[in-house]
What we know:
- It is a single chain.
- By secondary structure, the chain is mainly alpha-helical.
- The protein is built from 12 helices and no strands.
Amino acid sequence: SACLVGSEMCIRDSNNSNINSIVKNMFDDYKISSDNIALLIERVGEDISILSQEAEKLKCYKFSEKAITKEDILNCATFNIDTDIFKFIDNIITKRKEQALNTYYELLKNNEEPIKIIALLASKFRLMYQTSVLNKKGMSNNEIANLLGVHAYPVKLAIQSGMRYSEKLLLSFLRKLADLDNDIKTGVINAELGLELFILKV
């Protein structure tokens, strides 16, 4: 049924299946469920070399048991914010507050500064807005990437995420983040608390 929506979705499903198979093979005779393979990919991204490093880390960690659990992945696999940023944004916009807060707390646990997270969110909201405008003008992903001076892959992700929301909504979030940044820098609110309240109140 997914193929009826368009060839791009079919290609994406096929790519996901290929990556899942590659990752499964990385674990040799270790037991790992398809859900946990998906979790690992979601957590660290689709770069095969990074996935291979994380798989080796997990295999060493569970050398005796030869079984990889969800907890093992959450405890050992390196969280990649660049991979997860658009999902984080989706959770914020759609008010899935528990999931958004879980990502935020994970970032804090990995010593990411709230100000840096705010700047990253703002840059991705801006990219989603810019790519939406330029995509509607008929520009290709590569043309947009060249114009904005960014890599084609984040442009692709930004378009996929941004097309779900209006340009007006994306701009409103940019303004809210700018107001939050100003409140933090002028001492109106603590950075860590400010971002948490932003996630809870949007």
